[in-house]
């Protein structure tokens, strides 16, 4: 019996992308606006193409909103993979205790306790913007050492 990881290794890149998009359908805000000039580059529209015809209702973007569907669509998500970091359990190892306390509380105030600990454990990927937040908070509190993450992974900016 093959494991999930081994099955993913055997899939082509296109098949893997299709599987990821199909898995996102149930819990991602999609767009069905075909006349949008950005639709072929937008993750929301691409995921929307995988919606099954059976559900009577689907969480989707309101196409009548004036901020939707133009060259500057407010809900546009570029179909581009970026390098995201995973976990920062070792960030505080060389840091003085008082500095760690202030940095941790600042990040919790910035993101929320739940989100902070999900990112710290590696359950939630850390986007480039959140990586910059971590750098800014550490520098603000006087930490000049390296920002250490537990790993990295390439993924879409959902």
Structure at a glance:
With 158 residues, this protein is mainly alpha-helical.
Explain what this protein looks like in three dimensions.
- Helix content is 39%, strand content 9%.
- The chain is elongated.
- The protein contains six helices and three strands.
- It is mostly helical and 158 residues long.
- It has helices spanning 4-10, 13-24, 43-48, 97-111, 113-121, 128-140; strands spanning 81-86, 125-126, 151-156.
- The longest helix has 15 residues, at 97-111.
- The model has no long low-confidence stretch (mean pLDDT 89).
- A three-stranded antiparallel beta sheet has the order 2-1-3.
- α4 crosses α5 (113-121).
- The protein has two domains: 1-79, no CATH class; 81-156, no CATH class.
If helices are DSSP runs of H or I spanning 4 or more residues, what is the number of helices? 6
Radius of gyration: 19 Å
The main β sheet shows up as:
3 strands, antiparallel
The average pLDDT value, as a whole number, equals 89
Unreliable stretches covering 5 or more consecutive residues: none
Overall spatial form? elongated
Structural class: mainly alpha
Helix content: 25-40%
Order of helices and strands: HHHEHHEHE
Looking at this protein, list some descriptive labels.
single chain, 158 residues, mainly alpha, 2 domains, 3-stranded antiparallel sheet, 3 strands
């Amino acid at each position: 019996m093959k494991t999930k990881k081994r099955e993913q290794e055997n899939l082509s890149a296109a098949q893997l992308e299709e599987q990821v998009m199909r898995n996102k359908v149930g819990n991602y805000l999609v767009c069905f606006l075909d006349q949008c000039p950005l639709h072929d580059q937008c993750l929301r529209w691409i995921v929307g193409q995988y919606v099954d015809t059976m559900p009577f209702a689907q969480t989707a973007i309101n196409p009548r909103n004036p901020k939707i569907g133009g060259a500057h669509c407010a809900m546009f998500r570029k179909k581009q993979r970026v390098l995201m970091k995973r976990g920062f359990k070792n960030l505080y190892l060389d840091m003085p205790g008082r500095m760690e306390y202030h940095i941790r509380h600042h990040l919790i105030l910035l993101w929320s306790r739940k989100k902070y600990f999900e990112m710290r454990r590696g359950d939630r990927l850390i986007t480039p913007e959140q990586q910059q937040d971590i750098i800014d908070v550490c520098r603000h509190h006087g930490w000049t050492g390296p920002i250490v993450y537990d790993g990295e992974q390439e993924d879409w900016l959902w």
